[in-house]
Design goal:
739 residues, alpha/beta, FAD/NAD(P)-binding domain, 60s Ribosomal Protein L30, Chain: A, 4 domains, seven-stranded mixed β-sheet, five-stranded parallel β-sheet, globular
Length: 739
Amino acid sequence: MLAPTAIARDLVLVGGGHSHALVLRMLAMRPVAGLRITLISPASHTPYSGMLPGLVAGHYRFEQTHIDLARLCQWAGVRFIAGEVTALDPQARRLSLVGRPDIEYDLVSIDIGSQPELDPVPGARAHAVPVKPVAGLWQRWQDLLQRLAVLPPGTRQRIAVVGGGAGSVELALAMAHRLEHNPVDIELWCGAPEILQGYNSGARKGVMAALARHGVALELDARVVRVEANRLLLADGRQASFDELFWCTGAAAAPWIAASGLPVDERGFLAVTDSLHSVADARVFGAGDIATQLNHPRPKAGVYAVRQGPVLAHNLRAALMGKPLREHRPQRRFLSLVSLGDRLASADKGPFSATGRWVWRWKDAIDRTFMARFEQLPASMPQGDRGSVAEVESGPAQQPCGGCGAKVGADPLARALAELALEFPRHCPSPGVADDTAAVPGSGSAAIVQSLDLLRELVADPWLMGRIAANHALSDVYASGARPVSALAAITLPFAGPAILRRELKQLLAGALHELAAADCPLAGGHSMQGPELTVGFVVNGIAMAGDGRLLGKRGLAIGDQLILAKPLGTGVLFAAHMQRCADGRHIGAAIDSMLVSNRLAAELALANGASACTDITGFGLLGHLLEMLGEACDARLQLARLPLLDGALAHLRQGLRSSMHPANAGAREGLELTGRVDEDLLQILFDPQTSGGLLLGVAPQRTGSLLEALRGGDYPQASVIGEVVARASSAAGRVAVG
């Protein structure tokens, strides 16, 4: 019998388009009992198409024009997977992704938008910048701005935009406005006899005037038939040179849609009914540009995706609950507001048209109102509990953090071990002295070391969670100067039905094996069970990397040693902010990337450069683990300004955010000695618990330069010398001076 809160079904949303963003918000406000929702999107931020021209023109910041999907999913209780879908198997109900295991579903919805048609024109894919995906366009635009800033005097750049619809017009005008003081020539190449086909003459007149005002050269009846390096070849035999080419032509569908075997329209877009599900499979829904309602075909425009959102949310819920579906009737005409670069816009709907600054303000208000739905998320929301819907208020108490932020504090751990050591003197580890690993008794001259690590759920993506947990467990072995030779797993899965348990376990173990295989460490077995929350852990066995059997220990620092930290700090406060729905998804993604960087190379370099001591920075924070390293005769000095930090960490500390483990770690402050004025907010990073943190190394001064260079040239570009070891003062306990 399933527990009342058991997960029973998987709804997977592919793509973070406008429809899905609305669906997430609506389903979160009325959750379905036993349903797990997963959103798959290539990046944490998805652009709102209506504000993209304003972003290029410089009227908006990146954050104002993009929905933070990672934050939205955290608020909604939805799993976010940063990945790209490459195939759909509707018979097996399975999605294939780049570089990770397949994802299975019970119900799937697709909202991945469209992409420009590049392949019909030879050379376009090789030499043009497509306007979608927007992440690629934005990066190339930023690169172009940097190049223009350092152009030699007298040099001009020629920018070509191929298109003719509203998107290409807006892009060309936005670029022209942003670059009005730069030496550039912008040309818009349109294969039709007029731009904005389907728009009325009044709107077209306003756009033509804007192109002339901004100096954008418009070429009509100029169909591009081939693209070569820095050259366009036209159907009438003309040629045109360019320095940068942006492609904004008609919409095309991702090829995996047609390859799935599901019915598509003549251009490869998913064919859906008026209820927005595939005409051949009621378990596959589609919305936005990627789908075509066969009974009501419409142009590929964002306004239709927004209008589909409420119907899609209702029908996904209804399909899961066995209730009737609604039909969506798209409007025949819609209001089109075209940005003209300099805070002017043209409006078009049927015979109505208008151009002016008031139209821009109107458009700006509409766009900001839409984005406010995802920026101003409710502080309280309904949560499904045992099949009912109950309002749960966000209370003042902070939820316990996951990862190493869930560790028991150093003080209660030390007290418990000290008391037990009196009763079991030969069998209990000494508090504060034990290394990251322990030698297995009776293992002979080639000592086998062993380590155990467990993590509460830190990220909702099980594949990533498996990778982080495995990498974190391997780190203790590397910190001891050993190489892993075998591992055992200990996993607790949330209560769920058999199919869900199988899917979850496969994803977790696939992620763990990804890391273990890279370390050439076989998974020999383990234990799994069900419980109220996810925990993942590993026992890892290792043997010395060095041929002479030498290991690295925590103790062994020598006076004069330089202290090197290999990876940046900040995972604790960043994920505390993420739990409170105020972290930037890009910062969380960077923190995950850092946690996935193995400490193996750092350990090898430490051994090769004769490091005197080593530990990895995890739950007790930098200060707690540094104090463990200080022996009988050593103190340390740290320079706060040299500490490498993850983006966003210090900002959250300044806002007063802390990991739930932070107060326990701050108890080690009695071991600090402040020398002069220090930044109190930056000081707090010393107490921040890290998950899969970097190695802290002690190395002789004459070898510091070579080790630091090797680390930075390898996997640790932010490796830094953060302090030094000094002679012990009169205090009985180790002290750390901070300045």
